[in-house]
Amino acid sequence: MDSTEATESPRTDRDEQPALTVVVCLLSGEQLAEFVLPRCSTVHDVKMRLRDKEGIPIRKQQLVNGCDILPETVCLAELCSTDFLEVRLVRKEAINFHWQATSMNADRISSPEWCLDSSEAVSSRRCALSLHYYPAGFESKMHKAGHFSIMVQRPKNSILRARVHIAGVMRERLFTSAHGCFEGWINFASREVLPNCETQQLCLEGEEMGSLHGRLEPDVPEEISCPKARLHKASDWSSRRLEVQCFGVVRHASRADTIGATWKGRAWVQSSDFEKHPLDPPLSDSGRAEATDVAERIAKFVESKPGSQIQVVVTSPYLRCVETAAAICSTLGNRTRLMVDLGLGEVYGPEIFGEEPGRIIRSSCEVEEHLKGLSPSSPVPVSTVGVWPNWPETLAMARRRFAERLLVYISRGAKARRNFLLVSHADCVASCLALMPHGRVVESVDYGASMLAWRTPLPALLTSPRTAKRIPEPSCLRRSPSGQRAWWGEDGAESCEAATWHRSDPEELLSLCRTAWQIETSNVTLGHQWCGQDHAINCARAALRNSDASVQEVDHLLGLLSSELLKHSPESPKLRRKDSRLSCMSYETHLFGCSEKSLLEIDSIRESNRPVLHCSIIPSPICEGSHVSWDLRDALGRMPYAMGVPFVEEARVQSHESSAVHLRLTFFPGGHTAAPKNHVSLWVFPLQGLEDRSYVCSVDGSRSQRASGEAVLHFPRIEVFGEITLSICPLSISISKEKAADEE
């Protein structure tokens, strides 16, 4: 035997793999390294070959292929089919990104859309920033006429300072988590031609997050690059028509983890998919057939209403709901868009999961891959919105969340003249059905159950904020200072004026409520009638139509549901009316249906509810009562208040006299419609315990005001606020103090 053959090491399968040339470059295009690896190598192998100046492997940097950050476990063979692969190294200093401009049809805004999804290479926390360009001519209450705007969606629960440079003009704005919404506009003067190369400098929580460089691609549509670019006429309020207004709430079809169910011909719990995602089962084999039946049922419903169409299907992030929603979109046609709303997910508490779980849902890439595996033509979600609930969530909290999302989508859909369909879970269907004036108890919701509602909108119901002249004059009998938008205003729009006016004829409201919506249900078991039809209509009118309706009225309707989780088999309901707790409703300014966001990763998104002011109860001597103090600096940062976004706080104070005071405070910053010019306002709404008490309010040491009952207190505008203090004392003590002051 030859000596060389004797010493030759045995060849492995890895050596027999064809070679792949890997080139690593910076985002600027500068080449860093080039080496040859087997095709079976992973991204981790590439990163281990990279060394810094000290010879240490570059592990904390990220490799990017196109616009996707590559996980370390991805095999190189999956990234390309040729023998050459070029990847880019993302450094912490900057991120380069091409702004893609795509042609839009009549349903979408005719403008480019930019999206940055950053990870550890950019920031110490995961964030997603979406930038939308609105050309001159776009009409919005947050957009200046004759200007073009950039809408910034900041990372959730963070402070973002955005500096935008366009053609030598720099605009800077601070976005904080206390605004109650996650988006805002940066306005620029109108320009004849859209600039070709710009820079976005982004700071996250006071630390430099990076820069976003972009340029419009050469194949920019003519309607974007031409002077005075405008939207398609179908996107304008005045030209968009909605002959039949309808919406629906659907429960997903049968899931694969039920007893006796099969998935791909065998038990799902014995598959590898169960090992990866045990808490996110897909539809069973029979469930996919049920989803097709549900889609055909909804399609027949739409066909039976001439002039109706469902433009948007919004689904829970769980796969069984996404599969059901995709089947519905496929049946309704290509013009129906699919969205994912994290706020429509299952009850996130011990009643469902027992202990707090880790990862539950699948990533957007896994969802898209699963849908394409079922059918190559299957639609995929175009955006992910909403907020993941906090652990532990009770059943009552989840039902309030479901009701809130329905009210938000009804308002958005009416404003944007878009019909929608929600695909969620059993308790979501029951919660939404409880808000409608049917007067019956919801006992059970089967798989594939649905609630479909429709009406023919009156001309007055399609009034936009720009055509508010058709709205009757405000009533002088009742005026609410609340900045909260109407949940269900008669103008059919979620406008800033909707909370400050009321129609003077209550009978007209009642008549509209009786004749407005017609409802049909399928696979929903309704029990006995808990009240008369008139009483149900009054409750629904109070909860859905009055702009100053309290959340207690919604909770009252939800309290009529069973106190246990609704099953797909009928059960006797255990009715009880629990004490309602006020919960802040979120009001978002995004115009539903006017634009579409890029698909965002939902790997580990678990966002908390929108923050409120930090409240601390400070006891005082008996003669002084008690007072509540809010420190704005911790929640808002030191910033000028010109954004015009109100926020709400609740407080329950127990004084030394053992008398509880429960009140709600809404703070209106300068520039809001509820605050006079050059003033800020505080609306105090006593809920309990202030009938015989007065209170004195001071804002950061500014002028104090005394009031009792419900009141709106105005203060001269101060650029930076520090603390709001509300001193509460019995009315008799307050009067004696006032007399003593007069005597002095």
TrEMBL record:
Residues 20-93 form the Ubiquitin-like domain. InterPro entries: His_Pase_superF_clade-1, His_PPase_superfam, Phosphatase_SH3-domain, Ubiquitin-like_dom, Ubiquitin-like_domsf. It comes from the Eukaryota. This is E3 ubiquitin-protein ligase HERC1. It comes from Cladocopium goreaui.
